[in-house]
Amino acid sequence: MIRVEGLSKTFRGGFQALVDVDLEIRRGEIFALLGPNGAGKTTLISVICGLVNPSAGRVTVDGYDNLREYRKARALIGLVPQELTSEAFTTVWDTVSFSRGLFGKPKDPAHIERVLRSLTLWEKRDNRLLQLSGGMKRRVLIAKALAHEPQVLFLDEPTAGVDVALRREMWEVVRQLRDQGVTIILTTHYIEEAEEMADRIGVIRRGEIVLVENKHALMRKLGNKELTLHLHEPLDAVPTALTGHGLALTDEGHALVYSYNAASQEESSSISGLLADLEAVGLRVKDLHTRQSSLEDIFVSLVQERA
Ligand SMILES: Nc1ncnc2c1ncn2[C@@H]1O[C@H](COP(=O)(O)OP(=O)(O)OP(=O)(O)O)[C@@H](O)[C@H]1O
């Protein structure tokens, strides 16, 4: 749906915000662009949407060059900014209809109605924006971006500064849009958001894309698992018969921790070996649990590794 090739951006004054970025966004996916403050997320989105000119490289949207065929490329894109900048006294219906007009599309009240209904704003269509709650205002931003029937939707930090309940509501809205066939690109600081929503994840750091990966593959590849065995009787030391397993004794001798790579077949088959050896030395296990590293652990280690 979107192809970014060799994209660089150096701002006047010499700061290079994007460094030779290559990226492909697939039709119908939710792609999360994850990165620390100042990494270049907004700059990248602005260049893709044709709002900021690149210093080098090119972008196509469904095959249309976003500079040479700007109008065609831009018409395919809906952009959801963080803040509502519309007139507070305008009604929901008017502000959303007006957004459609900006793209030169003929009036289509039936489409506006569908958009408002899908975002549960229909009942509020005659309300002025200042009469809406924070969550409704966020949904108006999405409705405005969808008014001209775009195929791609960019959400710039859709849940920045919103409470947990509203965040969940936004996630649900975004998922429904994806189910309707809209390709979604969101930027976020919240790793939980990427973990919850994304099909694929791109990590950007100092203007460079350091990784693009399917979320599940990423978590399998880079994730580690820990198996903790809680013992009936505490130990002073790991029994010699078990030293080959690389166990750590924790919780004042009450627990043994076994770390392994979640993706490795070899390692997981060694778990049965470990359990058999535990049995052989007569250790009684009271309880056990496993923990897999989260996207947050992976992200922190990625950013630290390259710091
Ligand atoms: N118009 C500009 N002129 C000069 N430098 C700029 C300009 N716009 C952005 N930058 C710089 O480019 C870098 C990337 O900024 P950008 O807004 O893309 O980051 P971001 O990843 O969106 O950050 P955040 O998560 O904080 O929103 C920053 O160092 C910023 O100061």
Q: What is the compact description of this entry?
A:
The chain has ten helices and 14 strands. It has 307 residues and is α/β, with parallel strands linked by helices.
Total separate domains: 2
Summing up helix and strand content along with how strands pair, one would put the structural category as alpha/beta
Strand content: 25-35%
CATH architecture of the largest domain: 3-Layer(aba) Sandwich
The helix tally amounts to 10
CATH topology of the largest domain: Rossmann fold
Question: Which residues sit in consecutive blocks of at least 5 with pLDDT less than 50?
Answer: none
Give Rg in angstroms: 25 Å
* Lateral strand order in the biggest sheet: 6-7-8-3-9-10
User: H/E element string?
Assistant: EEEHEEHEHHHEHEHEEHEEEHEH
List the ions, cofactors and other small molecules found in this model. Answer: adenosine-5'-triphosphate
**Approximately how much helix is present in the residues?**
25-40%
Tags for this model:
Rossmann fold; 4-stranded antiparallel β-sheet; 2 domains; ABC_transporter_ATP-binding; 10 helices; 307 residues; 6-stranded mixed β-sheet; P-loop_NTPase; Alpha-Beta Plaits; alpha/beta; ABC_transporter-like_CS; binds adenosine-5'-triphosphate; nucleotide-binding; 14 strands
What does this structure look like?
Pfam families: ABC_tran. GO terms for molecular function: ATP binding; ATP hydrolysis activity. The protein has 307 residues and is an alpha/beta fold. The protein has two domains: 218 residues, 3-Layer(aba) Sandwich (Rossmann fold), CATH 3.40.50.300; 83 residues, 2-Layer Sandwich (Alpha-Beta Plaits). Helix content is 35%, strand content 28%. It is built from ten helices and 14 strands. Strands 6-7-8-3-9-10 form a six-stranded mixed β-sheet, sandwiched between helices. Helix 3 runs parallel beside helix 5. The longest helix has 16 residues. The protein is elongated. The model has no long low-confidence stretch (mean pLDDT 88). It binds adenosine-5'-triphosphate. The site of adenosine-5'-triphosphate has 12 residues, from helix 1.
